[in-house]
Here is the input.
Amino acid sequence: MNRAHNTRAWVLWLLIASGQVAAQAGDVQTGCTKAQACAVCHGPNGVSSAPDAPHLAGQPAIYLAAQLKAYREGSRKHEVMAVMAKPLSDADIDHLAAWYNAIRIEAILP
Here is the structure.
């Protein structure tokens, strides 16, 4: 890899890690409304109490959008998520990703 490529990769990684790439595409309030259907498994604020459902709060929007699209398209398999993601439009996914990315979480070390 050349130096320019390394710099671009680093900048892209920073944008992804901060959630700025996809979070700008979706509307947080619309995502909040849409996320009501997700609350059964992932908790009302994206913090799951179910042992087999991941926390969504604070996840990078680009990651969440990619996973929802993978469930919708069938390239990522999960019986329930396939059904939930199938009717979602790209805009729905962007809104959901923006909502969960906007939730701030705190990690406290022991």
